[in-house]
Amino acid sequence: MLNKILFITGPLNGGGAERVLLDILHHIDYDRYNVTLAQIVPGGSLDYEIPSSVKRISLWSSYDLHYKLSLRLSSMFGMHHFLRQRINAKLSHMCFDAVISFLEGMPLKLHGLLNIPSARHISWVHCDLETLRYQSNVFYKNEETLAYLKMDRVVNVSEGCSLGFSRLFSIDSSKLSVIHNPIDLKKIAKLISSPILINKVFTIVSVGRLTNVKRFDRLIKLAQKLRNESVSFKIIVIGEGENKKELLDLTENNHLVGFVEFKGFVTNPYEEIKKANVLLCTSESESFCLALVEAMALSIPVISTRTKGSECIIGDNQYGLLVEQSDRSIFEGVMKLYNEENLGHYYQQMGRKRAKDFDMPQFMDKFYNLLQ
After folding, report:
1. 120-154: per-residue pLDDT in tens?
2. Alpha-carbon distance 348 to 326, whole Å?
3. How far apart are CA 326 and CA 129, in angstroms?
4. Residues 6+ apart with CB under 8 A from 113
5. 16 CB neighbour count, 10 Å cutoff
6. C-alpha distance from residue 256 to each of 222, 242, 260, 280, 316 (Å)
7. What is the predicted pLDDT for the residue at 320?
8. Long-range contacts of range 341-347, CB-CB < 8 Å, 24 or more positions apart?
9. Residues of the chain with pLDDT under 50
């Protein structure tokens, strides 16, 4: 008999957690596992990548009035009846061996309201909850803690985030696991098989959702400093998000159109990364920056602001450059790689080596062990 797994998540937009989930769905052994994906609402830019072997369930067809009122009553007044009724009507009659809420926030909240006592309950945390409480408003009082307490296992994606999680929530440390996000080295190699045209100027690429925590506004300030230093450069930004118009306006107002380009969502970002001289992460908070490891796999040197996730990947400047959370430190890090060609070659080699630590087969072994 096949083991039955239920994943609970939202729409599959272009974030790192969603891409990790898709990698799991593409690598899981369907001769051993029957997989159901329950989405709060369907859709998202990566929705088309869900394998046909996965059974799909939408908890709502859209963020409609029922959803909004149910969430408001639950988060503001602790009246969980309508959310509990919806998720249990959709799922509780089904048998599962493991239930996994694959994101913090709303997937965890719904998981906490689900009544399937026979299953192994696992929740995945893809952000640094100690520093980024962006989803806390969906919970009523101590509901978030209670939901985590119901879990048999809580997975963080870096050691620093797991420590932060244990400081934030009073949960038995024996229930906590760390599983680093994976990359699929074979898939990446296939997607860059065609010849790559290298950019003629020093090119910086940055990848992620255009949100406040990613601090892409720092790229505009960096561009100003590089222009003032007469550096021949270009900054490429890959990703969509609510801050896009603000960032485009900032670029135009500072006369940086042509120096900074926002490419939006790109189906195959690896070709853009491969053409760059450096990948730069400017986030205020990261649990595990997948783009850093992907760049390493492509032999592209990386620079990142210091976060729990970047420290986990880069170490003490062993596999890339860690810079502080300031515009000046970011600029100095970029100029260091711009001026020191040998350092760039060193990080190309070390990054390639480091990327192998996060390859998909090792991750899947840990994933299967988690289900036991």
Report:
1. 999 999 999 988 887 789 999 999 999 999 999 99
2. 25
3. 22
4. 80, 83, 84, 87, 88
5. 22
6. 11, 20, 6, 18, 33
7. 98
8. 343/301, 344/277, 344/278, 344/301, 347/301, 347/302, 347/319, 347/320, 347/321
9. none
- The token pair at 332 is 């100095």
| Token couple for 187 | 């898939």
Residue 198: per-residue pLDDT = 72
CA 72 – CA 139 distance, rounded (Å): 10
Per-residue confidence (pLDDT) for residue 192, from 0 to 100: 84
> Which residue type is seen at 101?
S
Three-state secondary structure readout of 148-208: HHCCCEEEECCHHHHHHHHHHCCCCHHHEEECCCCECHHHHHHHCCCCCCCCCCEEEEEEC
| Residue 327 half-sphere exposure toward CB, CA atoms < 13 A | 11
DSSP assignments along 85-144, one per residue: HHHHHHHTTS--SEEEE-SSSHHHHHHHH---TTSEEEEEE-S-TTT--TTGGGS-TTHH
Query: Residue 278's beta-bridge partner residues?
Result: 204
pLDDT tens-digit series, residues 77-98: 999 999 999 999 999 999 999 9
Beta bridge partners of 321: 303
CA torsion 240→241→245→247, rounded to 10°? -80
Give the Cα separation of 137 and 33 in Å (integer).
35
What is the Cα–Cα distance from 189 to 36, expressed in whole angstroms?
Answer: 29
Q: Look up residue 31 and give its amino acid.
A: D
Q: What is the largest CA-CA distance in the chain?
A: 66
Which domains can be identified in the chain, with CATH numbers? 3-179 (3.40.50.2000), 185-357 (3.40.50.2000)
What are the C-alpha distances in Å from 118 to residues 5, 113, 115? 12, 15, 9
* Per-residue tokens: 35: 């997989």
SS3 234: strand
What's the CA dihedral at 356, 357, 361, 364 to 10 degrees?
Answer: -150
CA distance 277 to 340: 12
pLDDT value of residue 195:
67
Q: Strands 55-58 and 33-39: what pairing?
A: parallel
Secondary structure (DSSP) of 12-78: --SSHHHHHHHHHHHHS-TTTEEEEEEESS---TTGGGS-TTSEEEES-SSS-HHHHHHHHHHHHH-
* CB contact burial 150-169 (16+ within 10 A = b; e otherwise): ebebbbbbbebbbbbbbebb
